[in-house]
Amino acid sequence: MGLLTLDVFNVRNIVKARIEPAAQFNFIYGLNGSGKSALLEAIFLMGRAKSFRSTDLSKVINFNANQFIVSGKVSQAKKNNTTIGIQYHSGQLVTRIDQQTVKSKASIAYCFPLQIIHPKSYRTLDAGPQIRREFMDWGVFNLDPAFLSIWRRFKTALTQRNAALKNKVLNEVRVWEPELAYYGTIVQQCRCDYLEQLKPYFLLVSEQLLGITEIEIKINAGWDAAFTYEQVLHTSIEKDLRYGYTRLGPHRGDLSVLVQKRQAKDYVSRGQLKMLVLALSMAQVLMLKENNQQMGCFMIDDLTAELDRRSKEKVFRCLDDMNVQVFLTATDPESFKNDLPKGNHKMFHVEQGVVTEA
Ligand SMILES: Nc1ncnc2c1ncn2[C@@H]1O[C@H](COP(=O)(O)OP(=O)(O)OP(=O)(O)O)[C@@H](O)[C@H]1O
Ligand SMILES: [Mg+2]
């Protein structure tokens, strides 16, 4: 699976661009502010129908235009190619798969699963827990299609219980509890199973990238795991009423990485932290592939910043072994040229929003 063609209209400073990416490595280079991240943003829109930089999609539209369009052809294993189209105009997002309008962003995500590492991703292990929950849930979502409906039911029950807590309607709070406890417990179980399965892949990639073998991932349920979620909801009702929301549950869940039994975020260097985040993401992709799930593409924005030459070589080698379509950006083409993989690759130059194959 991978992106065969991409057409971009009015995404940031890219007014119009068309690329035909290589099946494996795509190196994108250009000066600061040339439009490299904008190009990755366009690809990300194709697979997620959202931006990784702005929650407000109107910010993505080129200053001189009133809409943006991204469309492309994606090859699928054992199926015909799929065309995906994303258009944003007057506050409305329209997503199409093979010319048919689709309502759910999940359909797009299943059609073209992608993962990105961008400068903010490197805070995965030391920023707030939201980014780590998204990491786990992306993994579970792609591995187990049943997770989406469980997640939605959990969110609905949580929203309803929170509304009842805010309005201080005790009966209503109790009505939503069994459903919240039931789906919340499954969400936590899915995350646990997922991380358990991910561990060997993470160990393997961490050893390849960092030479670290004594490494662990620990999950935090979002409540005291000595009790069931049902018990916890029941005993915390008074406090929740006072606060006006559900304080405990998978929406407070988290994960941590320990290196030699110490919290990685407090001990390893910045470059090592960056490599650990890469290892986590690459482990996810490897595991998906080993489970015969499709992977659309893997993107790394600004890979070479802060990484030394040897680290960069190791990342390239790992990416080569992963055998997925990759998009990498850097300001300097030399940072790729010394270590070009033997496999199929293309270079793209971006200059003031104009993308050309180099
Ligand atoms: N809505 C918009 N319309 C037009 N231009 C925009 C818009 N939003 C941002 N820009 C500009 O687009 C340019 C490209 O930004 P982008 O982040 O893609 O650059 P980059 O090549 O990734 O740079 P860097 O190497 O610094 O990361 C910037 O100069 C930015 O100011
Ligand atoms: Mg950039």
Summarize the structure.
The protein is α/β, with parallel strands linked by helices. It has helices at residues 36-48, 105-111, 130-143, 147-166, 170-210, 229-235, 237-243, 264-267, 270-290, 309-322, 334-337, and strands spanning 2-11, 14-19, 25-29, 67-75, 82-89, 92-97, 100-102, 114-117, 215-220, 254-259, 262-263, 297-300, 326-330, 345-351, 354-357.
Account of the 3D structure:
It is a single chain. The protein is an alpha/beta fold and 358 residues long. The chain folds into two domains: 1-113 and 294-358, P-loop containing nucleotide triphosphate hydrolases (Rossmann fold, 3-Layer(aba) Sandwich), CATH 3.40.50.300; 125-292, Glutathione S-transferase Yfyf (Class Pi), Chain A, domain 2 (Up-down Bundle). The chain is 42% helix and 24% strand. It contains eleven helices and 15 strands. The strands form three sheets. The chain has a six-stranded antiparallel sheet with strand order 2-1-4-5-6-7, covered by helices on one side. The chain has a six-stranded mixed sheet with strand order 8-12-13-3-14-15, with helices on both faces. Bound molecules: adenosine-5'-triphosphate and magnesium ion (MG). The site of adenosine-5'-triphosphate has 16 residues, from helix 1.
